[in-house]
Structures are given as C-alpha cells and as structure tokens.
Task: structure prediction
Amino acid sequence: MNSTIKLLLLVGTGSFIGGVGRFALGRFIQSVTHSVFPWGTFTVNVLGSFIIGILFGLSLRYSFLTTEWKIFLIVGICGGFTTFSSFSLEILELLKAGYVNQFLLYATSSVIVALLAVIAGYMIVKVF
Result:
C-alpha cells in the first residue's frame, strides 16, 4: 500500500473514532450538567489537551510509538476529538523551544482570529 494512502487511512480512522468520542462525551456531559455553559465542549477540549500531552510526553520518552502510531493517535484520534488539543500542543512546542514571541502571537491571534471568523461566517449567513 502506498505510504501516503496508509497515513491518510490512519488519520481518517483515528478522526472518525475521535469525532464520535467528542460527540458522545460532549453530549453526555452537557446533558448531565443542565447548564448554558458549554461544559461538554469545555470537557472535551481539556481532556483532549491532557491526552495529547501524555502522548507527546510518551513519544519523547519512549520509542515504542512509531510514526504511524503517533499519526493515528495524535493527529487522528486527538485531532478528531478536538483540534484544541493540537493547538495546545503546538503552543507547548513553541514555549519548549523558547519561541516566546511566536507563542504569544499564535496563541492570541488564533483565539481572536478564530472568533472573528465565526462571527463573520455567522453574519454572512444571517445577511444572505
């Protein structure tokens, strides 16, 4: 099998698992909290970030996580579970490498620009 196709299948399968997990856990948490605060999404984002931190730490410490496993678990499952976990990992990597200015720019601009993009998308649909 072509290595690119294999990697795409690993990411796709992992994303499916992560996405289903995100939907199920987020919905369950929200249903038991009975709150307008999005506890389901908040929980998924924090849990996904915690899990990706563990996987990243394990991949640095031990060699049993092959490239394929890292792609399946980190990009696929965690990425499908929450892209916030990937964002958090990238921020950690910038800080770990000492790129404080890039960290500040990436962290603040990602949140602000993403929020503006959501507002813009909503407004475009609302107007038309």
In short: Residues 3-82 form one domain. The helical segments are 3-33, 39-61, 67-81, 83-96, 100-127. The chain has a mean pLDDT of 91.
